[in-house]
Write a structure and sequence with these properties.
This protein is of the alpha+beta class. The protein has ten helices and 15 strands.
Length: 246
């Protein structure tokens, strides 16, 4: 059995959000991240991120509970074309964690010798980093020793010039106080895809399949050939089916 899929899958928690993605592409939003590095080092900030994973559907039940029972899968060719990359998982006590924290500290210095480009690249690296394990508190899941490594996360982290030159890194406290304002600045920044890039359309329930078929007829029938449309319909499934059959 494969330990990863040939697709990356983005999960969400509503039918409406899924159809919005299918119609308009992926919207960039800021994601808050608390990164622990060493015994006392940390970085708490929000970065623009679109998250995916490549967990096989047969192993995805825990992921459904935490991140939603709707999803869209895209080919890894699309992922590579758009610069999507697996997350860099870091044990907080590792030598690598210490090295990354030294870079972050140097970047924070007022008299740093780093160039503006080097400082920006450090932030870009940090935006792909996540602790190997830690507290997960999301929806019905609350686990103080959750192994994030098991999520097999991939991230699309856009360059600043692709997000209306809005802030790339926001102090976590500032972001929490003004989430809506910060996200409104990048609300029209989208990443699209073609019909051929779609590998899965995942719904919560099989009873929603007719609604999805009607949505696709309205919004996709003029974007592809009749044969391509038939193939697209064959890619619809539900978490209900996945949990029951795998």
């Amino acid at each position: 059995m494969a330990i990863s899929t040939n697709s990356i899958i983005h999960y969400t928690d509503s039918f409406n959000t899924l159809t919005s993605i299918l119609k308009e592409g992926f919207k960039i939003t800021y994601c808050s991240e608390k990164l622990k590095l060493g015994s006392s080092g940390s970085s708490e900030a929000a970065h623009p991120i679109i998250s995916f994973c490549d967990i096989p559907l047969s192993d995805s039940k825990q992921h459904f509970d935490a991140y939603g029972k709707y999803g869209i899968g895209l080919s890894k060719q699309w992922a590579m074309k758009n610069g999507v990359n697996p997350v860099l998982y870091i044990d907080k006590n590792s030598l690598f964690a210490s090295s990354l924290y030294e870079l972050i500290k140097e970047r924070r210095k007022k008299n740093s010798n780093l160039t503006a480009k080097q400082k920006a690249e450090i932030l870009q690296i940090k935006a792909y980093a996540k602790n190997y394990s830690g507290l997960l508190k999301r929806k019905s899941v609350k686990n103080p020793n959750y192994k994030f490594y098991d999520e097999r996360e991939w991230r699309l982290v856009p360059k600043k010039e692709k997000m209306n030159n809005a802030s790339f890194s926001i102090n976590l406290r500032d972001f929490i106080n003004d989430k809506a304002i910060y996200n409104s600045k990048i609300a029209d920044c989208r990443f699209g895809f073609e019909v051929k890039d779609i590998s899965y359309i995942i719904l919560k329930s099989t009873t929603e399949i007719p609604d999805m078929v009607n949505f696709l007829r309205t919004n996709y029938s003029d974007r592809c050939t009749a044969r391509e449309f038939d193939v697209l319909l064959s890619k619809i499934c539900s978490t209900e089916q996945i949990v029951a059959d795998y």
